[in-house]
Amino acid sequence: MKRRDVLKSGLVLAGTTALAAPAIAQSAPTIRWRLTSSFPKSLETIYGGGEFFADRVSKLTDGKFNIRVFAAGDLMPAFSALDGVQQGTVEMCHTASYYYVGKDFTMGFGTALPFGLTTRQQNAWMYHAGGIDTMNAFFKDYGVIAYPAGNTGAQMGGWFRNPVNTMADFKGLKMRIPGLGGQVMARIGAVPQALPGGDIYPALERGAIDATEWVGPYDDEKLGFYKIAKNYYYPGWWEPCSMYHVMINIQKWETLPKQYQEAVISACRETNLDMVAEYDAKNRLALVRLKAAGVQLHKFSDEIMEGSYKAATEMYEAEAAKNAKFKAIYEGWKTFRAEEAQWFALSESAIDQFYSAKLKT
Amino acid sequence: MKRRDVLKSGLVLAGTTALAAPAIAQSAPTIRWRLTSSFPKSLETIYGGGEFFADRVSKLTDGKFNIRVFAAGDLMPAFSALDGVQQGTVEMCHTASYYYVGKDFTMGFGTALPFGLTTRQQNAWMYHAGGIDTMNAFFKDYGVIAYPAGNTGAQMGGWFRNPVNTMADFKGLKMRIPGLGGQVMARIGAVPQALPGGDIYPALERGAIDATEWVGPYDDEKLGFYKIAKNYYYPGWWEPCSMYHVMINIQKWETLPKQYQEAVISACRETNLDMVAEYDAKNRLALVRLKAAGVQLHKFSDEIMEGSYKAATEMYEAEAAKNAKFKAIYEGWKTFRAEEAQWFALSESAIDQFYSAKLKT
C-alpha cells in the first residue's frame, strides 16, 4: 500500500503562498484535496466522520472545495496519517492523536487519557479552556494544525472470558488493549496485546487472549465477542471519551482562502457533535440486542477502579518528571478535571442515576 | 417595544421566489437579515449563542450573509419571537420552543420536558433518531423551519430558603418556576410563579417566594440567590437539558441560495456544540466559588424524585389522551428515553460517579 511516493498533493492552486487577499478569496477557486483516514470502513461511524466532514466542506463551498476521503491502508497505513500530512503526501487526515504517543506522550491529551476527561469535559477543555490553542502550539512541531472532529463517548471496559473482581485477577491476564490503556494494564500485572480489529475474534476464540476491549456496544457487537466472552465490563476507564481530529498540513492550510478555512473549522465542529450523537443513537439499540443475547454486564469493582487509577496516576507523574511538554499541560489539566468532576457529579449524574433505576427497556 | 409594525424584512434580495438555480446561487448575493433573540444580554451565554451563530454564518459566506442579532425586547418581547418570525416581521429568531407550549404542548419536545432527555440524548434524538424532521413537520404549521442551536446542559434544582425532604414539604411552597416544571410543581401541591429574572431576587429577599430555580451555577451566581437561600438542590429534573433553536420563516428560507442554507445549518450545529461547552467550562468555576461562599448542596430525596416523576408522567398521559400531535411523538420518545437511560447508566455514569468521589477540588 506504500503508494505515497507516487501520490502528490491534489491542490489545484498554483504555489503555496498565502491567499489572504480578499480579491483572491472571493474568487472561490476549485480545490481538490485528499484526506487519509486512520480508520477502516468497517468502523463506519468513525470512518464516516471523515466522509461527513468532507461532505459539509463541499456543501459550504458550493461544491468547490472537494476533499476525497481514503480509508486506512488505501494511501498509507492507519498510523502513518500524521507523517503523511507532515510530509505533504496528503493535505489532511482524520485520526486520533493518541496513536502518536510514541512520538510524544503529550499526544494523549488530544484523544483520551486513562481516567481523563469525558466527552463534554473534553469539549469544554478544547473550546472554552484553551485546549485547541494549547494542542495546536504542540502540534505545530509536527507541521500540522488540528481541530476536534468526532468522539465515541465513553467506551466500554471490554469482554472477559471469566469475571474479574480483584486486582489479583489481572495478574498475567492476556488482554487485547493497545496504547496508554495497555501501559496501565501492564503496570497492574496484565499482559496487554495490540491486535488489529480483525485478529481479535480468532485470538479470543482459540484462547490466545483472555479478554479484549474495542469501542462500545455497537462496534463490539459487529465483531461478535459476545459469542465467546459473555462478561461485558464498564466503564472503559482508559477511554472516558475518545476524540478524533482533522489534522491539516500547515503550509497547505495557509494557502486556503479564509472562507475555506472557516468551512473546515465549521465542518470539524459539526463532525465533533454529530459522531457522538450517532454513537449514542446506535449504542442504545446495540445494548438492547446484546442484553437479549445473554450478555452479562458488570461494573468494575471499586478495588479495580482504585488500583487502575493509582497505576495511571503513577504513569502520569513519571512522565511529567521527564517530559516538560507533558508536564506543562498536565498540571492545569488535572485541576480542570477535578473541577469538572465536581460539576458533573451534580445534576447530570443524578439524572443519569435516577433514570438508570427508573426507566427500564 | 412594539415596533414590529414599522419594522419589516431586511432581505435585500428582491422577491420571494426560490433561488435554487446554480447560476444565481453562485452569485453569492449580499443579504441582511434580522434575528430576534428570546434572551436578554444578561444571560450572556445563551444570548451569546445567537451572536456566535450570526458570526459563523458571516464567516462562512465571506461576510455576505449578515444577520443582525437583537436582544429580547429590542424588537419584540421574548415570547413573541415565534410569532414575529411566522408573521415575517423578522426572518429568524433564537428561542426555546417550550416557551410556546401554550400554543401546543408538543413544543416541549424541542427544548426540555420534565424528566425528559439529557443533552447528549436530546442530540441523539434530534440528529440520529428523526427528531429534527419530526419537529420540523410540527413547526411547519407555524410557518418556520428550525434547527437545534444551543443547550445549557442539565440545569440545577434551584435555591430553597429551607431544606425540602419530603413531598409534604412542597405543599404550599411558593416557588419561582415557570413552564412545564411549574405545572408539575402545581400537581405536587406547590404554588409555582413565573417571575422574570430581574424580579426573583427581591421576591426571595422579602419572602414573597420560598424558593426559585433559574439555570445553573454560573447564571444563578450572577443573580445572587446564594446570599439569601443557601440550600442549592439538584438535579433540575424539570430541565435535564435545555435546547434552543434557530427558527427561520419558511418562505424567507426558500429564498436563500443553497450555500447560505448550508451555512445556517452548519452554524446551528456549531452553536449547539459550543454553548454547552461554554456552560460546562463556566459552571465548573462558578461551583467552586459558590461552595466557597458556603452554599449547601443537596440532592433531591428519592421520595421527591419519585413523586415528581409520577406527577410528570400523569401530566404526559393526560396530554396524550387529548392531543394527537403530542401522542404521536410521545410514544416513540418514551421508548427512546428508556433505551438511552440504560445506555447512559453504564460507562458514562460509572465514570462520573467514580470521579465524583475521587477527584476533589
Helix content bin of chain A: 40-55%
Strand tally of chain A = 11
Using the alpha-carbon principal axes, give the shape of chain A: globular
Spatial arrangement of strands, main beta sheet of chain A: 7-6-8-5-9-11
Largest sheet of chain A, described in full? 6 strands, mixed
In percent terms, what proportion of residues of chain A is strand? 5-15%
Q: Return the CATH class of the largest domain in chain A.
A: Alpha Beta
- Give the structural class of chain A: alpha/beta
Q: How many whole angstroms does the radius of gyration of chain A measure? A: 21 Å
Overall number of structural domains of chain A: 2
Order of helices and strands of chain A: HEHEHEHHEEEHEHEHEEHHEHHH
Give the integer mean of the pLDDT values of chain A.
93
The name CATH uses for the topology of the largest domain in chain A is D-Maltodextrin-Binding Protein, domain 2
Largest binding interface between chains: A-B, 85 and 85 residues
Counting DSSP H or I runs of 4 or more residues, the number of helices of chain A is 13
Name given to the CATH architecture of the largest domain in chain A: 3-Layer(aba) Sandwich
Instruction: Give the CA-CA distance, first to last residue of chain A.
Output: 46 Å
**Quaternary status:** homodimer
Classified in CATH, the superfamily of the largest domain in chain A is: Bacterial extracellular solute-binding protein, family 7
